[in-house]
Design brief:
Blueprint: H1 8-13, H2 16-29, H3 36-49, E1 53-57, H4 60-70, E2 78-82, H5 87-95, E3 99-103, H6 114-117, E4 125-131, H7 140-150, E5 153-157, E6 165-166, E7 169-170, E8 177-181, E9 195-199, H8 202-211, E10 216-218, E11 221-222, H9 233-243, H10 246-263, E12 279-280, E13 286-289, H11 293-302, H12 332-340, E14 341-344, H13 352-370
Parallel strand pairs: 2-3, 2-4, 4-5, 5-8
Antiparallel strand pairs: 1-9, 6-7, 6-12, 8-9, 10-11, 13-14
Bound molecules: pyridoxal-5'-phosphate (PLP).
Length: 371
């Protein structure tokens, strides 16, 4: 039995007629950018997160970058980022002209280690970006406490964690502002690019609305050097359809994760995700670790099971960041994670049979590697 890593077509075809109706509505409206669909999506997503404001933007990278800009982060500033994250978290900082300052994760949860953050704070530090990696919320209370103590902003990178909860509170409502991506493969995915910032701060939301639209509040009057970073009417209308089933989709992911956690618990050499008592993850991906990761991936591929590595090279060792002068070995926890992680198939259209096929293949592959 073949199980793809993620079946986006199957996910979207479940709502084929509602998505087509949304397309027709936008087509017939004759209004394609910054209109009613976006306003309604923003209100609905704010309600979903429990935040006062949502500002739709063009993608997740822009969401992080614009949130930093709205708080005035710029050249000469430093922003604390996880050493273990997707490179977009770092790029958002660089695009503001600021410097990303990496901090290692807790190995068991993959998320930034609050106990290591204080040592990275300098007089230039302006913000901490807490990434809820793989759909697991970061440990927010100690991060927020440190930020208050040092006068920093906390920006959530919630691109992988729509609907995850930390001590009962939803992502998007756990820091000063939060950035979301609606890239097609995310838990809430558009049929193209999209993103949003959520915040309780009305002044920051107003600033974001200016920044995303050429720095203008009134057409052809530009207060600041802004950006063209808008969530268009079509994607907003499609996202409204998909938002309606997000909670249910996340529950289906949780059921698959529970099955994996139960059925793979005793596999020698395989490290499963650990969920702290305060975390309610949304399983954007289900990440296991294995010392022979590449061999495991090959055996699974041969058995028809799709996997992906999130991620093979940490940001500090990417050629794109050569200018920062980091060396291999400087962030050993992130580097070990990048050598050993493998994401198993995960998604809201997976069945218990699919998951059982993955379990059988993983058990067989791991007993081969132990032999
Ligand atoms: C996807 C992602 C982003 C960027 O989102 P885009 O919409 O692709 O720009 C940022 N951070 C993390 C952790 C992501 O997974």
């Amino acid at each position: 039995m073949n199980v793809p890593f993620l079946d986006l077509k199957a996910i979207n075809l479940r709502q084929e007629s509602a998505l087509q109706a949304a397309f027709q509505r936008v087509l017939q409206s004759g209004w394609y950018v910054l209109g009613r669909e976006l306003e309604q999506f923003e209100a609905e997503f704010a309600a979903f997160c429990g935040s006062r404001q949502t500002v739709g933007v063009a993608n997740g990278l822009d969401a992080i970058m614009l949130a930093l800009k709205a708080y005035g982060v710029g050249p000469g500033d430093e922003v604390i980022v996880p050493s273990n994250t997707y490179i977009a978290t770092w790029l958002a900082v660089s695009q503001c002209g600021a410097r990303p300052v990496p901090v290692e994760p807790v190995a068991a949860t993959y998320n930034i280690d609050p106990a290591r953050v204080a040592a990275a704070i300098t007089p230039r530090t302006r913000a901490i970006i807490a990434v809820h990696l793989y759909g697991q919320p970061a440990d927010m209370d100690p991060l927020n406490a440190l930020a208050r103590q040092h006068g920093l902003k906390v920006i959530e990178d919630a691109a992988q964690a729509h609907g995850a909860r930390y001590r009962g509170v939803s992502t998007g409502h756990l820091g000063d502002a939060a950035a979301f991506s609606f890239y097609p493969g995310k838990n809430l995915g558009a049929l193209g690019d999209g993103g949003a910032v959520t915040t309780d701060d009305d002044a920051i939301a107003a600033q974001l609305r200016v920044l995303r639209n050429y720095g203008s509040r009134q057409k052809y009057h530009n207060e600041v050097a802004g950006f063209n970073s808008r969530l268009d009417e079509l994607q907003a209308a499609l996202l409204r359809v998909k938002l309606a089933t997000l909670a249910q989709d996340n529950q289906q992911r949780a059921a698959i994760a529970a099955l994996y956690l139960r059925e793979l618990a005793d596999v020698p050499g395989l490290v499963l995700p650990q969920v702290p008592a305060w975390a309610d993850p949304v399983w954007h991906v289900f990440v296991v670790r294995h010392a022979q990761r590449d061999a495991l991936a090959q055996r699974l591929a041969a058995a028809g099971i799709g996997t992906i590595v999130h991620y093979p090279v940490p940001p500090h060792l990417q050629p794109a960041y050569a200018e920062l002068g980091f060396q291999a070995g400087q962030f050993p926890i992130a580097e070990a994670i990048h050598r050993e992680v493998l994401s198993l198939p995960m998604g809201p259209t997976m069945t218990a049979d699919d998951a059982a096929a993955v379990v059988r293949a993983v058990r067989a592959a791991c007993s081969e590697s132990a032999a």
